[in-house]
Amino acid sequence: MRFVFIVQGEGRGHMTQAVSLKTILESSGHTVEKVLIGASEGRSIPQFIQEEFKGRSISLPSPNFVLDRKGRKVQLAKTIVRNLLKLPLFMSSVRKVRMVLEEVGPDMVVNFYDVLGGLTYYFYSPEIPFVCVGHQYLTLHPDFPFPRDGAFQRQLLKWHTRLTAIKAHKILALSLRDMPDKADKRLVVTPPLLRKMVLDTSPQKGDFILGYLLNKAYAEEVIAWHMNDPAEKAHFFWDNQEAQEETLIHRNLIFHRLSDTKFIDFMSKCKGVVTTAGFESVSEAMYMGKPVLMVPTFGHYEQQCNAVDAIISGAGIQARSFEIERLVDYIPKHQQSNWKFRKWVDSATGHFLFHLVESRASFGRSFEASHVLASANRELPMK
């Protein structure tokens, strides 16, 4: 089968999930023809993503959050207004998506939580099966544990999530633990998609804290913590393209520019992880058995949801700011037994090949298009 991916470019989670799924599909003889990445101002596509999809990736303007000047807080009202003002630009991206689908003629489109995917199917209804993948889709599950506060934000998150999945034939909700599928079977709970380099690691218990900062403004909080505890060793990776490969703050505190291989290597050797509650980083830490301190970005309701869900799953603890001393105190008490989680993650290949390839006949009339049926019959007999 031939696939086109649509990927949200905020952070690294959706992009690394796309890399993981690409590996699974290509190892089974399928191909990813094009990768359309929804980009936002001030964000560049990481080098490792460009290398993974060399010659196949296209960057397109897509809606995203607006942060305050310090990059620490999501400004919801400004986010809504700015994205509405840029609607003509985003519609141009939607038309570009449609053009790519017409040119490539894939057997399936996989959307990693970018609104461009939902809008393309809403306005143009391509005769191509449409599947959505992401942890955010788990918020549509009746058993998802939301934070107690934030009723309006909850409804807004659900609305946005549904917007990305308009006319989706199947929704694959990535989860830290197995949960029953919804009665209509369109929403299916699946394991996280972790990259091969994560699955192949041999974790060790090191003597330093590892951190990932989506917004470089949080570096001030990390430095303030370190001044109070300079003996504690820490390495932090940040999305700061203006910085050197390594920025030495102190012999025990070093900031690194984001690197996929280097970050995973450091995670396998650290004693604990600090993150802004991104699903991907938490999943990787749990797979390696590393305790996690989650600090959701202020006003970022989705990250608050991630933190609640991760705590229930045994990942670690949550804080409102980078109180890294809390993680240092917590590490000896961490009791997560990660063998069950590793078994769940290791089953991902079977789950995704089944839901994207083997069960495709259940996706509806889109597969009745002659060019899709011909491709399906050539590549994999139905079970």
Low-confidence stretches: 365-383
End-to-end gap: 16 Å
Give the helix level as a range of percent: 25-40%
Instruction: Report the count of strand segments.
Output: 14
Structural class: alpha/beta
CATH class of the largest domain: Alpha Beta
Strand/helix succession: EHEHEHHEHEHEEHEHEEEHEHEHEHHHH
Please work out how many helical segments DSSP would assign.
15
Beta-strand portion reads: 15-25%
Described by the principal axes of the CA atoms, the overall outline is: globular
Structural domain count:
2
Give the biggest sheet: 7 strands, parallel
**Per CATH, which architecture of the largest domain?**
3-Layer(aba) Sandwich
Mean of residue pLDDT values: 85
Rg over CA atoms: 20 Å
- Strands in their spatial order, largest beta sheet: 3-2-1-4-5-6-7
CATH fold-level label of the largest domain? Rossmann fold
Describe this structure in words.
This protein starts with a strand and ends with a helix. 40% of the residues lie in helices and 19% in strands. It has two domains: 2-193 and 347-379, Rossmann fold; 197-342, Glycogen Phosphorylase B (Rossmann fold). The protein is globular and about 60 Å long. The strands form two sheets. The chain has a seven-stranded parallel sheet, sandwiched between helices. It has a seven-stranded mixed sheet with strand order 10-11-9-8-12-13-14, with helices on both faces. The relative contact order is 0.13. A hairpin with a 2-residue loop joins strand 10 and strand 11. With 383 residues, the protein is α/β, with parallel strands linked by helices. The chain contains 15 helices and 14 strands.
